[in-house]
Amino acid sequence: MTTEDYKQLADTFPKQPGVYRFLDENGVILYVGKAKQLKNRLASYFGERRDRAHKTRVMVKHAQRIIYTIVETEADALLLENTLIKKYQPRYNVMLKDGKSYSYLCIKNERFPRVFITRRVIRDGSTYFGPYTSKSRLKDILDLIKQLFPLRTCNFLLSENNIQAGKFKVCLEYHIKNCQGPCEGLEDEEGYLEKIDQIKNILKGNYSAVMQHFKQVMQRLAGDMEFEKAQQIKDKLSSFEDYQAKSTVVSTTIRDVDVFSIASDEKEAYVNYIKVVNGAIIHTHTQELVKNLDEDEKDLLEFTIPSLRERFNSIATEIIVPFQLDFPQEEMKITIPQRGDKRKLLELSEKNVKYYLLQRKKQEASRTNRQTPAERILRTLQADLQMDELPMHLECFDNSNIQGSHPVASCVVFKNAKPSKKDYRHFNIKTVEGPDDFASMTEVVFRRYRRMLDEKQPLPQLIIIDGGKGQLSASMKSIRELGIEDKVVVIGIAKRLEEIFFPDDPVPIYINKKSESLKLIQQARNEAHRFAISFHRDQRSRGFLGTELTAIPGIGEKTAQKLLTHFGSVKKLKETTAAQIAEVTSLNVAKKVLDYFLAEGENQKEQ
């Protein structure tokens, strides 16, 4: 990817946190990176820096495009980057390939629950908080919790029977006041669970009751003149508030879900899909749709969801959407979240799809501003005729004959909306007798494209037939016989009302008279007509030449053509001298010509 390629896209990148991916020509992810500001980070790959690593320069050179996903915070970007690197193992990423995960704080599902740090999330009913992007910060939180709420750290099975049987003895943690001895029944379960509830409030961010407790503790310590301990608790609490890093990129409360949102404008719609597996975002994709008739966003989303789920092999039994849908699969759970982690996931999807729509509009506006007049005209023509491809190469046919004499046809070629005169072709009609325009059109269209196929030349995207339904139908006989009906678009233009006809459609379309696309069609039609008329005149001149000069004994067509080309007409030839004729041909030819004209003149006098 060159700096020029980047400059064309630079204005579309957001100044928001997110994760970006460099992809090669086959769509393979080469590199995954995170950014606090996507626009600034991506610009760094294409600046004038000379200290950039060789590997980075090689990666950028091999990249063909860049995609990105917007997230809420830099911490979210770090988590999503981790997930994507582990999933795709990009060639140019070095870090995060070791399979390590971020840390969680676990409240174990057991009697007298333990609270500890773990990297593994086990679905056994335990409660997990996180992930946390910094393990050191998490240790500070756990230290704070232990200072405020002494908890057990042993892994004994503290069932009521085991405690009553006296199977356990208090350990050092009890003697240094880090535990209150539930293993010997020195602390009741109800009081212990009250501490666990307070810990959950802290980790959920429900500070009101807990903060009140902290203030009471600090006031008590200050009243006991233990200012240093009071300050330590205050510092630890501030540290906890700063370091807590709950993220929607990975959630322990969500398992497998698909998240969908939609944004649309007058012509197109965009559906964003976030695939969540085991609480982690593993894939994001935005699907573009062309709106037809009066389809609303509900219809489009119902149509797109099954397609995207099948494409990305989703087995999730729950989908998160912004509004109610009529989904055919009864076992599928449809959720329209109002709060919590699922709501945050939906908001993340909506944020991405809205930004994608905004980016596409900016790209379209930028592309329109950069379009050459020819490109603008061709895109208008493509839209007016609803073509799949841009008509960079179009051809137009016309017939010409006067009272059935010397029937001919022409084919003019336009490339990039301009005449390509070196590619013009004219045809003498060979298989048709009399003035039959339909049969003549069938013949010349067949001859033109039969030869192009034999010579393996590229076919035009658009073929224009000068005439109405009759000429168009005649040309389609050859198009179908050659088997190229699905490879080209064929239209007929009727002169009277400038009606545009399509094959097998009796109802014409009318393009705005001021449209640049109609003017291009008219230009091609007029050029084909001019070229056909010019060729027809040449043929008539040759016919006249054949009746005048070739009637002279010993004068063939080539000699007659040479004389006519040099002198311009038979009349001027009659007025010239033998020496002048001899300069063009020979003295013998000059004698034959002048003797013939002399005898012709004497005959006319006698009559």
Number of DSSP strands?
Answer: 19
> What is the first-to-last residue Cα distance?
87 Å
Question: What is the name of the CATH architecture of the largest domain?
Answer: 2-Layer Sandwich
CATH C-level category of the largest domain: Alpha Beta
Indicate the multimeric state: single chain
Describe, in short, the structure shown.
The chain is an alpha+beta fold.
List keywords for this structure.
single chain; 19 strands; GIY-YIG endonuclease; 607 residues; Nucleotidyltransferase, domain 5; 20 helices; alpha+beta
Give your account of this protein's structure.
The protein is 45% helix and 19% strand. The longest helix is centred in the C-terminal third of the chain and has 33 residues, at 516-548. It is rod-shaped, with a radius of gyration of 42 Å. The relative contact order is 0.05. It has helices spanning 3-9, 38-43, 54-62, 74-88, 135-148, 160-164, 172-175, 189-204, 207-223, 227-243, 297-311, 340-370, 373-384, 437-454, 469-482, 516-548, 557-567, 570-574, 578-584, 587-606, and strands spanning 18-23, 29-35, 65-70, 103-107, 115-118, 127-132, 257-264, 268-277, 280-290, 318-320, 333-335, 393-402, 405-415, 418-419, 425-428, 462-466, 489-494, 499-502, 505-509. It is an alpha+beta fold. Strands 12, 13, 14, 15, 16, 17, 18 and 19 form an 8-stranded mixed sheet that branches. Strands 9-8-7-10-11 form a 5-stranded mixed sheet. A 3-stranded antiparallel sheet has the order 2-1-3. It has 5 domains: 3-88, 3-Layer(aba) Sandwich (GIY-YIG endonuclease), CATH 3.40.1440.10; 103-243, no CATH class; 257-364, Nucleotidyltransferase, domain 5 (2-Layer Sandwich); 381-540, Nucleotidyltransferase, domain 5 (2-Layer Sandwich); 552-606, DNA polymerase, domain 1 (Orthogonal Bundle), CATH 1.10.150.20.
